[in-house]
Amino acid sequence: MKHILTINFLSIAFLLASCGNGNNKSDGYGTFESTETTVSSEVQGKILYFPVEEGQLLKKGELAALVDSTQTYLRVLQVEAQVESINSKKQTIAAQGQVLDQQLENINKEVRRAEGLFKLNAATQKQVDDVTGQAKVIQMQKHALNVQLAEISIEAKALGMQVMMLKDQLAKCRIVNPVTGTILVKYAEVGEIIAPGKGIYKIADLSEINLKVYISGKQLSDIHLGDSVTVITDIATGLHEQLGIISWVSPEAEFTPKIVQTREERVKLVYAVKIRVKNDGSLKIGMPGEMKLKLNR
């Protein structure tokens, strides 16, 4: 009787263990990742201020670094002085134009008077020609002045554009953090000379992190955007489970990456899936994780 009970107990335990193993088998395996942003300088110069450190939380819009802007600032002052000089010339030319306008008005009166006297035989043709010639000279002077004013206006506009460009470069000497996140890597230090396009730090928002797993074509019909799944990670005391939301499913199949293990053979095609997970600080980029679908099995 004892032997029968022992055999029955062992059979039941084996079945329970078998069922438990089936239920604990995950549906996808992969690693955690996040959208990483490499922040670069848009201007060349020496870093004067760069207080950020790796692991520091930095908010969007905060000043992250300052690049030496002395030469750019001096260039702005120089070009602005040139603009003021051009504007002064424009005022002088405008005043000269007013004088010529008055002279032309006066000479036109003389032309009309000479023509009237000529009709009355009180003036000679030479007198008429002289005042008419004077009027034409003043008109030509006025035209030359207008051409000069147009050229100076074009020059002033070009200098104005230079000022705008220099002020834009001046603003770019202030490196403002583009996204809220945690500093992952710091590539430069205060005092270093940086070039445009050179990254000075890398940042990522780790408040939410993505688990990228791979599933087989057979599982694809069970995957839908917005579905809740169970995300499993290893901790010191065993396994940790938490809620995840499917945020992306690849529209194209690919061969399973060698670094990822799935239930299917490596040579078969799989689909990448991203699961958005709230991060309490325990999840790290590159950490392995598993995904279990919430299905009735």
Q: List segments where confidence is low: pLDDT < 50 over at least 5 consecutive residues.
A: 1-22
Cα(first) to Cα(last) distance is: 36 Å
Strand content: 25-35%
Side-by-side strand order of the widest sheet? 1-10-14-12-11-15
Q: Characterize the largest beta sheet: strand count, sense, and whether it forms a barrel.
A: 6 strands, antiparallel, barrel
* Oligomer status: single chain
The amount of helix comes to 40-55%
Radius of gyration: 40 Å
Structural class: alpha+beta
Mean pLDDT: 86
Envelope shape? elongated
The helix/strand series, from N terminus to C terminus, equals HEEEEEHHEEEEEEEEEE
The helix count comes to: 3
Q: How many domains, in number, for the residues?
A: 3
Write structural notes for this entry.
This protein is an alpha+beta fold and 297 residues long. The chain folds into three domains: 96 residues, Efflux pump adaptor protein, beta barrel domain (Elongation Factor Tu (Ef-tu), domain 3); 63 residues, OB fold (Dihydrolipoamide Acetyltransferase, E2P) (Beta Barrel), CATH 2.40.50.100; 102 residues. It contains three helices and 15 strands. The strands form three sheets. The protein has a six-stranded antiparallel beta barrel with strand order 1-10-14-12-11-15. Strands 2-9-7-4 form a four-stranded antiparallel beta sheet, with no helix packed on it. Helix 2 packs antiparallel against helix 3. The N terminus is likely disordered.
